[in-house]
Amino acid sequence: xxxxxxxxxDAPTCSVDYAFRRIGGKYKGRILWALHENTILxxxxxxxxxxxxxxxxxxxxxxxxxxxxxxxRKVYHQVPPKVEYSLSxxxxxxxxxxxxxxxxxxxxxxxx
Length: 112
Hints:
By secondary structure, the protein is of the alpha+beta class. The chain has helices spanning 15-23, 28-38, 43-49, 55-67, 89-110; strands at 40-42, 71-76, 82-87. Helix content is 55%, strand content 13%. A three-stranded antiparallel β-sheet has the order 1-3-2. α2 packs across α5 (89-110). The chain is globular. GO terms for molecular function: DNA binding.
């Protein structure tokens, strides 16, 4: 009996998989929405908008979103350091879909 090698790939299997890998998870949609509502937020402001997120998770999530080009990160070289986050053009493309999900969630939560 021939044993086949285990196939392991981080490549998305379809476009839906690709999309949810970029925006899935507990915080990414909420970060996108917070940046949509506020235009520009600093790290601490994002942390306050997502009260249940740890510092480590916020840092990790922002790095992933910047890598995926969903957000812009602008660093001001000053003391103390200042960093601002905003939606990229790609991130802005997602807002109508997140708004639709928000409206759906509002309706469903109203039924609870």
